[in-house]
Each structure stands twice: as C-alpha cells, then as structure tokens.
C-alpha cells in the first residue's frame, strides 16, 4: 500500500465536518466527565454516557466507549479492564471516545483525577503536555509519524514516565475510515496530512499501577 492509499478518504469527506466531529466529541467527553463521581464503575459510566451522546446528536459509535479507572488506566485499548473497579475518592480515570457526527469520525481522549491525588494528577498533566509537545513537532518540523513516536518515547523517558509503545495513533475520516486501512501513525514513514490522523499518547508511572492517556486530531485548527 502506498502513502496515497494510506491517506485516502471517501467521497463524502469534508474537512469542516471533521472539525465539527472533533468539537462535538470533546463536548461529549466533558459531558461524561461531569458525571464521574466516587463509587461509579466503568460499566455504569458507559451506560450514563448514552444520555450525553443522545443530547449531542451523535449518529453512532465507530469504536466502543472506553472508560478506565485506577489500575485500568495502564491498559491498552485491546486489553480488558480488571473487573469490579470503582472510582475512589482520590483517584484517576480516562475517557476514550470514537463518535460519528455528520458522517465523520471524531476520536478524543483525556485523563482526569478526583480528590487529592497529586502523583496521578501529574501523570494526567504529563500526558497532555507530551501530546502538545509532539503535535508541535508535527506542525513546526513536519516529522514523519514514525519519528513523532520516536520523539514521544524520548520525551516521556526524559519526563520520568514509561511510554506505552503499543499505542501508536491511527487514521480517521468520513465513516468508515477502516476501508482505507491507513494503519498506525507510528508506522507512517512520511509527514501525516492535516485532519486525517489521531495522535495518541499513553504513559504510565514507572513503578505504581496508574497511567494516563490523551489523544486528539492532528490539525492546524485552534484547539
């Protein structure tokens, strides 16, 4: 597959609709955040998310809603959560959403803490900072997807966090992007095009059982 195929889009693709899907997806994520409270389980949070999606006019999911709490924040997308985990009084969690609006795919994720959890809060902030650092490298230097993830790994280590190499970013587009088989951003050997790729960052504490996740669309548009 050549690079043009890996960045192919469908006939309905519209960059403005991609930005709309991104904006609505972030609104959904923060709507779920407002419902997170001590004692809630991941299953209960996912069930309540349906009301948030309906209020925003979401058309469908393109990947399952992922909400990870406590030790499950170290799990990759394809790993199952430890069952029965509930949000503690001083705890960490992340939300990962893949939603379709106007036939276009949004994909956003962010990590939050509740109560007094300073180390967890530092981890959550580090994931945000690392995402912004790597995205700036893309905007300012035009690095390939492969080199962006090499840079992310180096920066995470320098910041004192363990980088999750299994989380490597991916394509989005008009739904369904999967027909284009774009592959992982971390394996893309050229500069990623704007508004087509999700940069995913996942890190973990080097010794303690918690981590953080952040993802967003690579775009020059204001966040």
Automatic annotation (TrEMBL):
<dbReference type="InterPro" id="IPR000994">
    <property type="entry name" value="Pept_M24"/>
</dbReference>
<keyword id="KW-0031">Aminopeptidase</keyword>
<dbReference type="GO" id="GO:0004177">
    <property type="term" value="F:aminopeptidase activity"/>
</dbReference>
<protein>
    <submittedName>
        <fullName>Aminopeptidase P family protein</fullName>
    </submittedName>
</protein>
<dbReference type="Pfam" id="PF00557">
    <property type="entry name" value="Peptidase_M24"/>
</dbReference>
<dbReference type="InterPro" id="IPR036005">
    <property type="entry name" value="Creatinase/aminopeptidase-like"/>
</dbReference>
<keyword id="KW-0378">Hydrolase</keyword>
<dbReference type="InterPro" id="IPR050659">
    <property type="entry name" value="Peptidase_M24B"/>
</dbReference>
<keyword id="KW-0645">Protease</keyword>
<feature type="domain" description="Peptidase M24">
    <location>
        <begin position="18"/>
        <end position="216"/>
    </location>
</feature>
């Amino acid at each position: 597959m050549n690079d043009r195929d890996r960045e192919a889009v469908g006939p309905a693709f519209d960059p403005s609709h991609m930005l709309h899907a991104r904006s609505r997806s972030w609104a959904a994520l923060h709507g779920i955040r407002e419902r997170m409270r001590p004692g809630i389980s991941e299953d209960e949070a996912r069930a309540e998310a349906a009301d948030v999606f309906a209020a925003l006019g979401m058309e469908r999911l393109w990947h399952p809603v992922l909400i990870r709490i406590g030790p499950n924040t170290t799990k990759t997308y394809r790993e199952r959560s430890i069952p029965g985990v509930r949000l503690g009084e001083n705890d960490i969690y992340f939300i990962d959403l893949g939603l379709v609006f106007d036939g276009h795919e949004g994909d956003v994720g962010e990590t939050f803490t509740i109560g007094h959890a300073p180390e967890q809060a530092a981890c959550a902030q580090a994931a945000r900072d690392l995402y912004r650092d790597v995205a700036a490298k893309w905007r300012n230097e035009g690095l390939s997807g492969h080199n962006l993830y090499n840079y992310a790994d180096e920066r995470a280590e320098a910041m004192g966090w363990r980088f999750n190499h299994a989380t490597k970013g991916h394509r989005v587009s008009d739904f369904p992007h999967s027909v284009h088989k774009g592959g992982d951003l971390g394996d893309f050997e050229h500069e990623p095009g704007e508004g087509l790729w999700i940069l995913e960052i996942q890190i973990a504490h080097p010794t303690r059982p918690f981590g953080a996740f952040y993802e967003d669309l690579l775009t020059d548009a204001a966040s």
